[in-house]
Sequence to fold (663 residues):
Amino acid sequence: MDYKEEILKLRRELEEHNYRYYVLDEPGIDDFEYDAIMRRLIELEEAHPELAAPDSPSRRVGGAAAEGFERVEHRVPLMSLNDVFSKEELFAFGQRMEKENARCEYIVEPKIDGLSVALTYEKGVFVRGATRGDGRVGEDVTENLKTIKSVPLSIKDAPETLIVRGEVYMPTRVFEELNAQREIDGEKPLANPRNAAAGAMRQLDPKVAASRRLDIIIFSMLHIEGLSFETDSDCLDYLRERGFKVVGYRLCRSMEETYAHILELGERRESFEFGIDGAVASLNLLADRARLGSTAKAPRWAAAFKYPPEVKESRVLNIVVQVGRTGVLTPKAVVEPVRLAGTTVTNATLHNQDFIAEKDIRIGDTVCIRKAGEIIPEVLGVVREKRPADAKPYVMPEYCPECGAPVSRDPDGAALRCTGAECPAQLLRNITHFASKNAMDIEGLGPNIVKALVESGLIKSAAELYFLKAENVARLERMGKKSAQNLMESIEKSKKAGLARLIYALGIRQVGESAAKTLAARFKSMDALAEASVEELTAVEDIGPVTADYIKSWFESPQSAHLLKRLKEAGVAMETAEEEPADRRFEGMTFVLTGGLTAYTRDEAQALIEKFGGRTASSVSKKTSVVVAGENAGSKLAKAESLGVRIIDESEFLRMTGQEKNS
Fold:
């Protein structure tokens, strides 16, 4: 088989597997096999770029980042819908339809809460995708849409031109997994699936969009050349046969039947993998639609029934505090079971102490509850006249309910945070950070392996990584003897990572990579850093009083002392072994790197600066000595210009460092 035939064969295989997995929900192979086929295709396409194609499944992993989105004028306007909010309003819509049409048949479908887009196919190949925008002009998000594996990149028996409309969404399961990972990484959780999907579609780098694992449901055929259909249901059936993931619909022959189905959809909306904020009822006959036409904003032949935000009363049985993976203490109300938006609610979020105090929520209170964004139950307020006489104001605990360590309040917010270095609730996040590339750099110890080690009971702190036995690790799912041995070797190697990396790996609040390097250079050993006073710490460049307090408090914690003791017993290097630079040409200078460098990676350039006694910073300020501006330098370059900071290009940087590395 020649390369061209193999590439075509691999593309067909991958598209078939995408269709089976993402549209039919019937996977034919496991992820490992799928990834192997994809790697082979990418390998062949990179070796033979002349065989690249816009509809190749390899485009789904994300192409080059764009500088901005081009505006796209929609060939067919993407109109909005008229909303109705009650049975009476829905039946009034039905009466208008029955007055204008001899035979009314309604197509009823869930209204997906996502981002509306139009997809254009020319001769069967997906050529353009655009957001709704204002309905007439949207943004070109073609490359981002290609990363969605349920979007057919090509279709069979294709017309000359086909334009369809769909709703991009983030599956609820993916949203929950993504937020769990963001919590481990110390990032702010995404607000809701709809915002997450919209944000992903507006990423200039398609690789970021691909990582969000979005999906799409097609709900309308906007234009087709060479074919005609009698009904909307015929259009949807045609699209389903061509490989599109099409919205589930029901045909109803009366408004009573339509309303009953809308209520049924509302009752089971929790069963969908996407959020819905209503249901759409529209005439099925396309001739009737054409005769009725549209207003400037919406068709006259359709209505969107919006489910009211259901609010119910319940009694607070208890207030319990959960400790998140970043150590934040979050209170929640345990309430008497109440049916709300299709599910039974027994808990409601209380956010933080300020929220509880503002609404004066107490154990025993009767409260009003609703689902925020139809997902998270929250307390709206207290029914004061139903308050028990003995109800007392609630105060958050001073000690972590998981490990007993003191809690501290964030100086810039309402969050209370556990200070324990070995807190079980923070274990996954702490160990994942400890092993990360810029910390101890333990290759092969990603979040999934950390989770498996913790859940199997093999480790209860980062220090216990160094006491693992290969035979125990090999018993973990998907590990095996060879993988376990490789991991053990990587763990052993990390013992010599150095003091700066270790300080950063400990996860002390506000101590990032740069601060860790500065502290290691100043104190030379972990013992010296642990004994440093707040005054000595604040004397160190870039260590302010808040950070100094965090450092001092961390070392004073018994859990921190135990963690360091175990690390020492394991033989982890606690002193700096770095030699003083012989050439200190950059001593006292602070560099900021911005844009893309061709001769070096960002880490290599940073190491070079430090080799000559300089330091790097992530942001430009009056203290910045030099800004190295690579390709596509952004806001940092503009700020450097406004502050009058010296700016050099990469060639000047190479001259200053005396390097001859070829780009």
